[in-house]
Amino acid sequence: MTPNLTASAAELARLMAAGELTSEVLTRSCLARIEQLNPALNVFLSVDAESALAQARDIDARRAAGEKLGPLAGIPIGVKDNFCTTDFPTTCGSRMLQGWTPPYDSTVVGKLRAAGLVIVGKTNMDEFAMGSSTETSFYGPTRNPWDTERIPGGSGGGSAAAVASFMVPLAVGSDTGGSIRQPGSVTGTVGVKPTYGGVSRYGLVAMASSLDQPGPCARTALDAAMLQEIIGGYDRHDSASIDQPVGDLTGAASAADLSGLRVGVVTELGGEGYEPDVLARFDEAVDLLRAAGAEVVEVSCPSFRYALPAYYLIQPAELSSNLARFDGMRYGHRAGDDGTRSAEEVMNLTRDEGFGKEAKRRIIIGTYALSAGYYDAYYGSAQKVRTLIQQDFDRAFEAVDVLVSPTTPTVAFKIGERMADPMSMYMADLCTIPSNMAGNASASFPAGLSEDGLPVGLQVMAPPMADERLYRVGGVLERALEQQWGAPLLARLAEKEISA
Question: Is 159 noted as a catalytic residue in this protein?
Fold first, then answer.
């Protein structure tokens, strides 16, 4: 049979388990879709069709032999290009790592392989995950399949766009300040930032180690839940890994209603600066949660107002330390090594040539914030604000079970529109940053379309290790919207012809 590439991963997996579809046929269809659309959208930085088909045939053979396979075995998946992979280059969207292939797999990739998912390639991203639009990639911007003149979010716009454009049913990303959720919001997909430590960071190229968190990108709440159950769990290689069970996320995503659930609307994440269409879709989504049985109240988290400036001290500070290793001496790009220059000169030339403008900006900010005489005034003060944000979350979760807000203040903006104004770019992550600062679970679910036909997302935030609450809310909202629309939101995109 010819597979329906707009179907959910769960449905495609069901068809394979029933013998009505093979992984090889599905993978060939996905590869053909990538070949057709990637020149226009610039979603995948590397694809290995031969390897993907070999993986798919192996899964089909094992299934035919009666082997018990995982629930998503045979499903093609894209991997953000900052996860180490032994069979694909890991460039982090930077010239600094152009062509570099790691000697080991990240834990997330290892779990994907063990579960039988078919890795077809690596997806585009902002350079070293620094950006909110996937425009800072050395390899060019990714385009939003809803409108190819607009951004797909960042830093993981490639993963979100791969799922939204039906190139692959699933992808994985990393979230430091909203890099899974914000792309999810502007592409009409589901993006989840699990509890910090809930999914291993081992083999994820570090940007800001106390903030980075891998997570799933999908089209439905159930698909994301199934993927998180595979990649989540304890890993001794990650010092921040939490030694607790992942929980029944798929069961939560299938919950019938929200009876007994207390939902808090964060008053600080709305109002001035938010587009009217975003606020309208948010209010409509909250009404649907209320109709599903949730008790909705307003909650104040006053320290959230300071999350953005505090984040842009903590994140660059950690980044400047993590990126110090890219100096042209050990691996990656090297410039000026003609035998006439000192090691220091080669390092300077390498970093000047290897890093883009945004990377240099944040390295300089971070180095300054950590320098003698300024550490306490900047980095130390930002960490105090981080504590206040965590305390705001703690107080809020004493009163409610989950918090909700718009995922982004605006819909997807046009490519190039904010590149000359870093502050306006940083504002795209205004709603998502608090959860990274506190380490709690957070997700974005589609909430409808703007008057211009662009996706809007609802952000759901839950306490640490209460990730199942995200999926309960997201699953109920998804079904309520489908009932209103008569089809999933992405069905509107499936009707459009994607071209650049």
Answer: no
